[in-house]
Amino acid sequence: MQLAFFFDQTRCIGCYTCAVACKDWHDVPAGPASWLRVITIEQGRYPEPFLAYLISACYHCDVPACVAACPMNAISKREQDGIVIVDSNKCVGRDACQLCLQVCPYGAPQFGIEENAFMQKCDFCSERWLMGKRPVCVDSCPARALDAGPLDEMRTRYGEATKAAGFTYNYEVRPSIVFKPKLRT
Description:
Blueprint: E1 3-8, H1 17-25, E2 37-43, E3 50-56, H2 65-69, E4 75-77, E5 84-86, H3 99-103, H4 126-130, H5 136-140, E6 146-150, H6 151-158, E7 177-180
Parallel strand pairs: 1-7
Antiparallel strand pairs: 1-6, 2-3, 4-5
């Protein structure tokens, strides 16, 4: 089984509640590290402007480039659910490496401000899954723009769209996300 996110770009209002809830739940200190980011996409000009939002987190890829790139084997993909996890005890830190960040097409690896910070990233709220709960970003979204579950279930429920405004699907790593894209009219 492969867990995946669903993101309804037509519902997202760019409130950042998902990003704040994520930082709070995981005790990520204020600063540059953010396991889930909200990207604003602005295109066009008056009288036809276009505004959309995109969540950017670890998409727990089918073939994660970060796993192969890590010289310390600090990153692995769990067989039971496809979650890509980091063992910070094995990571040599930002100052010594950053290969994971260099190869990730989505910028998922994050580093704090402390000296030689270790890599951190979205873990799909794996401890919440053990409790039968969805990721905190999903449960906190006031616009109900997020969902999560097995990839096959997300595709059955929401379709198979892999493209959205501001997102480029990488066929080499195959990110585990399904979209309802906001289309420019």
